[in-house]
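Rotation project, supervised by the postdoc (A.L.). Task for the rotation student: set up a whole-complex structure prediction and record inputs and outputs verbatim in this book. Inputs entered:
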Amino acid sequence: MKRLIPLFTLALIIFACGGGEETTASEAPGETPAQAVAQDIDTKKIWKIRCIACHGLYGDMGTNGAANLQESTKDLAYRVNIITHGSENGVMTAFGEILSPEEITAMAEYTMTFNKNLK
Ligand code: HEC
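Outputs recorded:
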């Protein structure tokens, strides 16, 4: 039984560090989202590896019917959801198992920078 205590403590520490995913939907998107900077997430790199094939470098390529992100007015919550679970028609990949929640939020914010009319 004694041997379990350090394990339990470790689990607690990991659990304690895991929180903090809450984000406010009203945060203004910038070139590099604040959260990405804080967590050292390279949104541009993730974009080039994971998203560019369908959305293109500037978000408007539309391969496989990908939404034009320069025209999209979808809110942050919608974006976080579609990035996590993929599109309903199954064309867009679900990234919930590939990216961390922090990365997904950062990518959702990043996609909002393509539409110059969004603030
Ligand atoms: C295999 C192609 C594909 C890849 C890869 C892909 N997407 Fe998509 N994406 C789509 C399609 C198709 C839609 C439109 C789905 C729909 O409307 O049902 C979409 C929609 C979206 C939307 C919603 C925009 C709107 O107005 O509906 C966001 C945000 C988005 N993608 C972000 C991303 C991000 C971030 C990545 C990389 C982590 C990514 N996508 C990778 C195909 C892709």
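Student's summary: Residues 19-28 have pLDDT under 50 and may be disordered.
Supervisor addendum: The pocket of heme C is lined by residues 50-51, 53-55, 64-67, 72, 74, 79, 82-83, 87-89, 91-93, 95, 107, 111 (CB under 6 Å).
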